[in-house]
Design goal:
Elements lengths: L31 E6 L7 E6 L2 E4 H7 L4 H10 L5 H5 L2 H15 L6 H7 L2 E3 L3 E4 L7 E5 L2 H11 L14 E4 L5 E3 L2 E4 L2 E4 L8 E4 L3 E2 L2 E7 L18 E8 L2 E2 H7 L13 E3 L4 E2 L7 E2 L17 H6 L1 E2 L2 E7 L1 H5 L5 E7 L7 H9 L10 E3 L14 H4 L7 E2 L5 E2 L7 E8 L7 E11 L5
Helix pairs in contact: 1-2, 2-4
Length: 440
């Protein structure tokens, strides 16, 4: 993705809130979501964030604010999901983003700009839903630091499985329990085998955890049997959101012999409502490297473009708000801060590997990046790492401690990109809250 005028940090909007320092949604971002006003009978439809407002793309389409391919793309976004828009491909994605950018610029004027002003809805007055009809959800396992941290806890003689360094490992997750930020879910029930026991117990999970991830939305798919080349993979990705892959660790460790996660992962996954486009992320690509002592990728997972700019420097934080903090009006506690640039495998490699066997991805499919952990202890993307399997509980700002999550806890993920010479852009947040388990 080439840099262009929409990445220029000097560009401003006539909407003052979009120009404030630290704003997640300046004119250089323009992420997409699906929304409607609170307490109304409105249908959900596509929207774009600018400052503290949402651009109602259904109203944009009806008002004739745009022309040509941009107008066709806005019409596709007027539906209750973004799948039809995703399927239109990169030319349409760019046409709509650039068309809105032109109307939002500081000195833009005319009838179409006036019409666009009438299409703004305050973000404080809306609610969101999952932005696409997700046909399939695949969750990857691509952080060498997360894998090593887990290995130190449970496999000290075999930190990382041999296949981890040869391919992006993944499992297929559950679509029906994916929810948007604000999701509340019950603590899951399941079987647990206690150390030294001869039969499992059944009951509520006692080792509930979060996983800091990114969600990768597929735009255009591929025909069955025709793999996506690594060089072309990012052209099939519409954009990226925040994703929390909640995990019941005690259930997980018992049920994962010999197959992958099942009940430990299928009860809830929480994503942020806003999808930041790959075009908006273009300035934050970095060179991707592989340690010389590690196996080098097989040819289908290697290309010059991926080496030169396959990594993405997305800053990520995890915050925890306990029931006590909420009741006392206290701020949440920050648990960790890391960057997506540390992942062992890139977004393009995940897409290429997913399709190499002939799998046909479809518009709206969702990929999870896998837990994102950095090289330092404070960069761990899961509580099981930070608290060392619950043995060293993490101290919170108000004096509470957590080895694993308790009922009433809310986990908040935040993400943004910034660097000198570029505008800061953000992802908003993903917030999920734990409710007590059903009585057994």
């Amino acid at each position: 993705m080439q840099l262009n005028h929409t990445h220029d940090p000097a560009r401003k909007s006539w909407l003052a809130s979009a120009n404030l320092a630290g704003c997640d949604f300046p004119i250089q971002n323009l992420p997409f979501a699906v929304f409607r006003r609170h307490k109304g009978e409105e249908v959900f439809r596509g929207g774009v964030a600018i400052g503290d407002q949402v651009i109602d793309l259904a109203r944009v389409s009806a008002a004739g604010c745009l022309d040509g391919l941009a107008a066709q793309a806005a019409a596709a976004c007027a539906q209750p999901s973004l799948n039809a828009f995703f399927a239109m491909g990169p030319p349409a994605w760019q046409a709509l983003r650039h068309g809105l950018f032109a109307l939002l610029e500081q000195h833009a004027a005319g009838e179409k700009v006036a019409a666009l002003r009438a299409c703004l809805v305050p973000q404080l007055s809306v609610e969101y839903t999952v932005p696409a009809r997700i046909g399939d959800y695949t969750d990857f396992y691509t952080s060498i630091h997360h894998a090593s941290n887990i290995g130190k806890l449970f496999r000290p003689d075999d930190l990382v499985t041999p296949n981890f360094k040869w391919m992006p490992i993944a499992y297929h997750g559950r679509v029906s329990s994916i929810g948007v930020s604000g999701q509340k879910f019950r603590r899951p029930l399941g079987q647990v085998m206690a150390p030294g026991a001869s039969r499992p117990d059944f009951g509520p999970c006692t080792r509930l955890d979060y996983e800091l991830e990114l969600g990768i939305f597929i735009g255009q798919g591929n025909p069955q049997g025709e793999p996506i080349r690594l060089d072309d993979a990012e052209q099939h990705v519409f954009g990226i959101c925040l994703l929390n892959d909640w995990s019941a660790r005690d259930i997980q460790f018992w049920e994962m012999a010999p197959l992958g996660p099942f009940l430990a992962k299928n009860f809830a996954t929480t994503i942020s409502p806003w999808i930041v486009t790959m075009e908006a992320l273009a300035p934050y690509h970095q060179a991707w490297d592989r340690a010389a002592a590690d196996p080098q990728p097989l040819p289908y997972l290697a290309c010059e473009h991926n080496r030169a700019e396959g990594a993405l420097d997305i800053q990520l934080e995890v915050w925890l708000e306990t029931a006590q903090q909420r009741a006392q009006g206290l701020a949440p506690s920050r648990l960790s801060h890391t960057s997506f640039k540390h992942q062992y495998w890139t977004v393009a490699q995940m897409v290429a590997h997913h399709t190499v066997g002939g799998c046909n991805l479809q518009p709206g499919d969702l990929l999870g990046s896998g837990t994102i952990s950095g090289p330092d202890a404070a960069e761990a993307g899961a509580l099981i790492e930070l608290a060392e399997g619950g043995r060293k509980p993490v101290a919170l700002d108000n004096g509470e401690q957590r080895g694993f999550l308790l009922d009433g806890d809310a986990v908040i993920l935040k993400g943004w990109c910034e660097k000198p010479g570029c505008a800061r852009i953000g992802f908003g947040q993903s917030r999920g809250e734990i409710l007590p388990a059903l009585n057994t």
